[in-house]
Amino acid sequence: MPYIFQWPFHDHNSLSFRCASKFTVAAVSLFGKLVTEIFNTTHVHNKQQLLDAIEHRESGRPLITVINHTSVLDDPGLHGVLPTRILVRNNHLMRWSVAAQDVCYKRSIFTWFFSRGRCVPVIRGVGVYQRGIDFCIEKLNQGEWVHIFPEGYVNPDNTYRRLKWGVGRLVAECERSPLIVPMWHVGMDVVRPNKRPYYYFKAGKHVTLSIGDPIDLSSEVERLRSSNSSPMEARKTLTDIIEQRLLALKPEAEKLHQETLVRLNVKS
C-alpha cells in the first residue's frame, strides 16, 4: 500500500521546513499544555526521569518513549506536561511521533500540518519494513527522540493487546542502543472521549501520568547480535521486554489515579 500523498520529509532539513516545524510544534505543544494543565489537571509521577532523558542525553544517545494509547489527544496532550522551555525555546529537542497514515495523512493539508508537527506516517498492516520506520531509525541514529504508541491503535479500554514489533526493530537496528522510557497514563479518554463529536475536550478532569525507570537494552542487543539471532527473533525478544516493563506500570498508574480521585473527592 503506497503513501496517500508524496513522502512529506524530502525537504525536512530546509530552512522553510524547519521554521514551519518550529512554529507548529510550539503551537500544538502549547495547546496540549492548555488542555492538560490549564483546563484539566495532570498528576505526573517521576517527571524528572523523563526530563533528564530529554534534556541531558549523554553524548547524543537516542531516546525512545513508549506509552499506552487511549485517546487521539494523547499526543500532543500529554506532552503539555513538559516545561515551556522545551516546548517553545528548545523544541528541537521534541519528539518525532509515529502516526497512522489513515488518520493523520488523509488530506494534503493534514499532510503539511502533521509533518511539520514531527509526526511520521506509518501504514498499518504492512509490517515493520516501511519508509516511516526507516525514517525513525534515521532520526534515532542522529541522537533524536522518537515517541511511539506500540499498541498501534487507540485502545480506550486498556485491554491487553501485544505490542507491535516496530518498536523492537527501532531498538535492534539503531546504531547506538537507545535509552527507552516507558510511560502509562490514565484519564485522557475522559478528557477527550473517543466518540462523536470529535472536536471537543472536557475540562475539570484529572489525568495521571506515571513515568517508569529508563530501560537500557544495550547488553541484550549485543547478545542477540553475537548469537546471530534472526531479525525477527531480535525484534520479538526486544519488544517482549519492553512490553513487560510497560505493562508493569499499568496497575501502579491506575492505583495512583484512584488515590488522587479519592483524596480530591472527585468521581473522574
UniProtKB/TrEMBL annotation:
<keyword id="KW-0012">Acyltransferase</keyword>
<dbReference type="GO" id="GO:0005743">
    <property type="term" value="C:mitochondrial inner membrane"/>
</dbReference>
<feature type="domain" description="Phospholipid/glycerol acyltransferase">
    <location>
        <begin position="63"/>
        <end position="188"/>
    </location>
</feature>
<comment type="similarity">
    <text>Belongs to the taffazin family.</text>
</comment>
<dbReference type="GO" id="GO:0035965">
    <property type="term" value="P:cardiolipin acyl-chain remodeling"/>
</dbReference>
<dbReference type="GO" id="GO:0005741">
    <property type="term" value="C:mitochondrial outer membrane"/>
</dbReference>
<keyword id="KW-1000">Mitochondrion outer membrane</keyword>
<dbReference type="Pfam" id="PF01553">
    <property type="entry name" value="Acyltransferase"/>
</dbReference>
<keyword id="KW-0472">Membrane</keyword>
<dbReference type="GO" id="GO:0007007">
    <property type="term" value="P:inner mitochondrial membrane organization"/>
</dbReference>
<protein>
    <recommendedName>
        <fullName>Tafazzin family protein</fullName>
    </recommendedName>
</protein>
<keyword id="KW-0443">Lipid metabolism</keyword>
<keyword id="KW-0496">Mitochondrion</keyword>
<dbReference type="InterPro" id="IPR002123">
    <property type="entry name" value="Plipid/glycerol_acylTrfase"/>
</dbReference>
<keyword id="KW-0808">Transferase</keyword>
<dbReference type="InterPro" id="IPR000872">
    <property type="entry name" value="Tafazzin"/>
</dbReference>
<dbReference type="GO" id="GO:0047184">
    <property type="term" value="F:1-acylglycerophosphocholine O-acyltransferase activity"/>
</dbReference>
<keyword id="KW-0999">Mitochondrion inner membrane</keyword>
